[in-house]
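Tokens in:
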């Protein structure tokens, strides 16, 4: 996984001076401490549950309240996703989380008011498979999220049978682990309401203009064979847009995108050491849409229900159809150029 490794443990914030202990205030959101309604006494977590949290291997840093925080290998929650979440109204929404791992983003959606959270993972595709972290976290947080550990993103519609009306889909840290990211986006569009919000997060090449993606098979990205694709920012946008989503907002590291290459990168280039360009994390939010799309010549079977194009068979209108489509496509490109 494209993440930094960290030591695992569970910490109590009150012991913040001990070596390796991080203060809870470092987290962007915290679960409130629990109090007994009658006596007003602070309820501590059941010691057994606290020990179970401490004994597991976590990737997510989850705040369980009362000062108990899992020491996730990936450190504090990604601030870009936190920013995107804070601009989405989760109240009363039906949410699907793809590849949820320990469940941080599912629990966060629930904490922000989601009515129903369906948390999926495909645990055969990750490390720490025997760690029941989602179940333990759900118990500690009294979560009502439904967990499905064996559902691939490609099978959400068939395997979940959860309806085609998700309001929000969380697709964080996944697309670059897939051989078919475009098929995955089509599968997600299928289970979303028109107007639903998709949150996409992942590794990108810092390039706002070029629409290309690097493929990793023999060569490894970050020595991790589970990484298949690395798109540029512009390519990720187009992957999302061509799957019948309209991009709403983008979140990149401040001052990072479009930055000049670092000295280290320039030295590497001088020494002819192969590298992928400047890699960073990026978040897009996009709205599920139905529309005419001038960039399609022929219908895509997976996306046909959302595509309002008329595809005339060759005849007297065919030439005009092609001229109109070319005009619209050029207009789209001009808009994109303005945005980049
Ligand atoms: C980098 S982790 C991301 C975890 C979490 N979504 C986050 O952003 O913190 C990648 C996750 O993708 C899941 N995964 C890999 N292939 C998948 C697939 N085909 N369908 C669904 N999930 C998949 C893995 O099991 C793992 O939980």
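Residues out:
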């Amino acid at each position: 996984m494209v993440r930094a490794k960290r030591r695992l443990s569970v910490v109590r914030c009150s012991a913040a001076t001990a070596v390796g202990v991080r203060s809870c205030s470092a987290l962007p959101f915290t679960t409130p401490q629990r109090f007994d309604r009658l006596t007003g006494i602070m309820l501590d977590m059941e010691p057994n549950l606290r020990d179970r949290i401490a004994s597991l291997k976590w990737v997510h840093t989850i705040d369980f309240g009362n000062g108990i925080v899992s020491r996730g290998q990936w450190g504090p929650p990604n601030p870009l996703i936190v920013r995107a979440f804070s601009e989405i109204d989760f109240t009363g929404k039906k949410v699907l989380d793809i590849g949820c791992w320990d469940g941080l983003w599912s629990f966060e959606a629930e904490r922000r008011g989601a009515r129903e959270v369906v948390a999926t993972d495909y645990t055969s595709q990750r490390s720490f498979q025997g760690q029941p972290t989602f179940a333990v976290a759900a118990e500690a947080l009294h979560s009502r999220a439904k967990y499905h550990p064996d559902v691939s993103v490609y099978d959400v519609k068939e395997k979940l049978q959860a309806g085609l009306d998700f309001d929000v889909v969380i697709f964080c840290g996944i697309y670059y682990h897939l051989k078919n990211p475009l098929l995955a986006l089509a599968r997600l569009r299928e289970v979303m309401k028109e107007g639903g919000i998709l949150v996409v997060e992942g590794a990108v090449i810092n390039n706002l203009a070029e629409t290309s993606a690097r493929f990793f098979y023999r060569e490894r990205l970050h020595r991790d064979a589970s990484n298949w694709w690395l798109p540029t920012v512009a390519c990720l946008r187009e992957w999302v847009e061509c799957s019948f989503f309209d991009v709403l907002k983008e979140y990149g590291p401040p001052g990072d995108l479009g930055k000049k290459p670092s000295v280290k990168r320039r030295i590497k280039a001088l020494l002819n050491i192969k590298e992928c360009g400047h890699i960073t994390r990026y978040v897009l939010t996009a709205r599920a849409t139905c529309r005419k799309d001038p960039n399609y010549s022929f219908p895509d079977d997976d996306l046909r229900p959302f595509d309002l194009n008329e595809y005339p068979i060759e005849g007297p209108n065919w030439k005009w159809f092609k001229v109109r489509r070319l005009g619209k496509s050029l207009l789209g490109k001009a808009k994109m150029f303005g945005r980049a």
